[in-house]
């Protein structure tokens, strides 16, 4: 009987110890979700009826023959996570020979990746921003203010001025190197449980538990 009481008391003390040292609280973690563009292509005024939707790269700028080239990229917005705080689109450039100013414009009209040409290209809705393309690197544009009530987000990339004959390559959504594909990157917060263990209270309760255990053991032997 005494052993049962001792075991029960030790169990209670250990339970109190565990509850005291562990604190469960909600913590917010910042995470990102990257989704590849769902269609892309480019058009060339030097070949106005040609479609380049089947290629894994795009071109934009002005060729050495003074032909204008424009790239079109559409990013899906259907994977929008809850509690998102920022939405950014990316694209990676290559074969940049010299710096070139480009305009990033919003495209609202629908277009088909496999049929878009210079002749039937969609019209531009508004200018989002301008960029200075300075080398082979990734470019990031914040589109957080454009996300609401949309299922996709489409941009046109073209030369801002016609003074520089320079075109550059943009990696497409089907390019073999997945890290270079155009993406929309969502930044969002997620609430997860977090376990905290307190140092000083832990040492105190461990000492108290040991002392009570020793005292109870001695008292049981005396009786």
Q: In brief, what are we looking at here?
A:
With 223 residues, this protein is an alpha+beta fold. The chain is 20% helix and 43% strand.
The gyration radius over C-alpha positions equals: 31 Å
Helix vs. strand class? alpha+beta
Assembly state (oligomeric): single chain
Summed up, the domain count is 1
Low-confidence stretches: none
What's the story with the biggest beta sheet? 11 strands, antiparallel
Question: CA-to-CA gap between the ends?
Answer: 12 Å
* Helix percent band: 10-25%
Output the helix-strand order. HEEEEEEEEEEEH
CATH class term: Mainly Beta
Can you tell me the overall shape? elongated
Looking at the structure, the CATH topology is Jelly Rolls
Query: What amount of the residues lies in strands?
Result: 35-45%
Total number of strands: 11
Number of helices in the DSSP assignment: 2
- CATH architectural type: Sandwich
Average the pLDDT over all residues and give the rounded result: 85
Describe the SSE topology.
Blueprint lengths: L1 H20 E15 L2 E6 L12 E6 L5 E9 L7 E11 L5 E8 L18 E8 L4 E5 L9 E8 L7 E5 L11 E15 L1 H24 L1
Helix pairs in contact: 1-2
Description:
The chain has 223 residues and is of the alpha+beta class. It has a single domain (30-191), classed as Sandwich (Jelly Rolls), CATH 2.60.120. 20% of the residues lie in helices and 43% in strands. It contains two helices and eleven strands. The chain has helices at residues 2-21, 199-222, and strands spanning 22-36, 39-44, 57-62, 68-76, 84-94, 100-107, 126-133, 138-142, 152-159, 167-171, 183-197. Strands 1, 2, 3, 4, 5, 6, 7, 8, 9, 10 and 11 form an eleven-stranded antiparallel β-sheet that branches. Helix 1 (2-21) runs antiparallel to helix 2 (199-222). The two termini are 12 Å apart. The model has no long low-confidence stretch (mean pLDDT 85).
């Amino acid at each position: 009987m005494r052993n049962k009481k001792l075991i029960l008391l030790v169990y209670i003390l250990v339970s109190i110890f565990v509850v005291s040292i562990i604190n469960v609280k909600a913590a917010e973690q910042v995470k990102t979700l990257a989704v590849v563009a769902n269609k892309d292509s480019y058009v060339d005024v030097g070949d106005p009826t040609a479609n380049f939707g089947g290629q894994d790269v795009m071109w934009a700028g002005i060729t050495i023959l003074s032909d204008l080239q424009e790239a079109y990229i559409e990013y899906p917005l259907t994977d929008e996570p809850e509690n998102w705080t920022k939405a950014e689109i990316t694209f990676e450039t290559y074969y940049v020979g010299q710096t070139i100013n480009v305009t990033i414009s919003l495209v609202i009209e629908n277009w088909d990746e496999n049929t878009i040409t210079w002749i039937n290209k969609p019209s531009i809705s508004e200018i989002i921003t301008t960029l200075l393309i300075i080398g082979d690197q990734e470019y990031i544009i914040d589109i957080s203010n454009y996300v609401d009530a949309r299922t996709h987000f489409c941009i046109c990339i073209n030369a801002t001025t016609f003074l520089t004959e320079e075109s550059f390559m943009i990696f497409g959504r089907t390019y073999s190197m997945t890290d270079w594909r155009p993406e929309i990157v969502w930044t969002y917060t997620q609430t997860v449980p977090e376990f905290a263990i307190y140092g000083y209270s832990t040492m105190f309760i461990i000492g108290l538990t040991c002392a009570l255990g020793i005292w109870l053991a001695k008292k049981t032997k005396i009786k």
